[in-house]
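USER: Write out one fold?

ASSISTANT:
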Amino acid sequence: MMTNYEVEIDNNAIKFNLNRLGNQIYKTLCLREEGKDWQKPLETIMVELLGMANLFPQQEKLCSLACKIQGLTNKEIDFMLYRRTVFECCSLVNKIKDAID
């Protein structure tokens, strides 16, 4: 896939990175359930997603994913809403991966 810097990056590398991010997103659910720090990992995920969205502006769903992740950073978010949104994020990651040829 071509970046905004006109550098070609192997699709498998991008899919691997998306898979890793999806796993990290899911892990925040486990961390929150266990009462551990789930906010710092979300901040790191957000930084990576924003970077990826800047590199691949043609992947518009990355922006939607970043918006959902940003919403999860709200400390006051109800756990069930958090849980549902994490699953939506994981599904969105899979849709983005599937769209990469």
About this structure: The mean pLDDT is 95. Residues 23 and 98 are 16 Å apart (CA to CA). The longest helix spans residues 11-33. Helices lie at 11-33, 39-55, 61-72, 79-99.
